[in-house]
Write the structure tokens for this entry.
Amino acid sequence: MEVVIVPDARTGGELIAAAIGRLLSHKPDALLGVATGSSPLPIYEALTAKVRAGEADPSRARICQLDEYVGLPPGHPESYRSVVLREVVEPLGLTESSFMGPDGSAEDIEGACAAYDRALGEAGGVDLQLLGIGTDGHIGFNEPCSSLASRTRIKTLTEQTRVDNARFFDNDIDQVPHHVITQGIGTILEARHLVLLATGEGKAEAVAQTVEGPVAALVPASALQLHPHATVVVDEAAASKLKLADYFRATYAAKPAWQGL
Ligand code: GLP
């Protein structure tokens, strides 16, 4: 696992946006997996700035969703479909036709999960999957004790995640759905490159367990250790519990420029 410690979230966003720009220059129709939450926002801002400056061309890119709430009415502003359209698809000048995600309002949720998992494969697989991390170490909505081989499926949120996400629902936990669809950990691990961005002290413990702890279902993000090309970008606060922080800094500083992120 490659660990990159950056001074702040903005720098992390710029670094990752540059990697996406390079991906698009050699694969213009790349399938980019995006995450929701506040952590990836600096990536989308930096990428949008690059596009506006003519430094990246996403016009043929395809965007896919990591997870979704179950049961929100279609078009609900906090459904992840709405969030991704608002924060990623529209700012990049793309349309819904370049976008794919699971249907959280389907009558047959299990069928919708299987269909989405299949669709990702049929689309050629995800080239670069962006990830955030929950305070309990979840990725997507794979809560602790998710199978490390899991596929896209319905999950029940922990109380902690519902508390964390209540800020998007008028700080009212009762409005936060109990159920979600998420790409499974096995599904996520099929992406060609995984890039996790974590910022702030609240993520420090989860980051330390992800990077330096054992691979364990209790910390779903630790499954990134099994991936041949996983990059974890953290600010100083999120890196504060890493025992090997100095080693990671030295490794990144000594990296040849051509190697990129
Ligand atoms: C939600 C999302 C995750 C995200 C997490 C952390 O649970 N399903 O994909 O990583 O929130 O969000 P934030 O970055 O806002 O802390």
Q: What stands out?
A: Helices lie at 9-26, 41-52, 80-89, 109-122, 159-165, 185-188, 204-212, 245-253. Strands lie at 2-6, 31-34, 62-65, 67-69, 99-100, 128-131, 153-156, 179-182, 193-198, 230-235. The mean pLDDT is 96. The chain has one domain: 2-254.
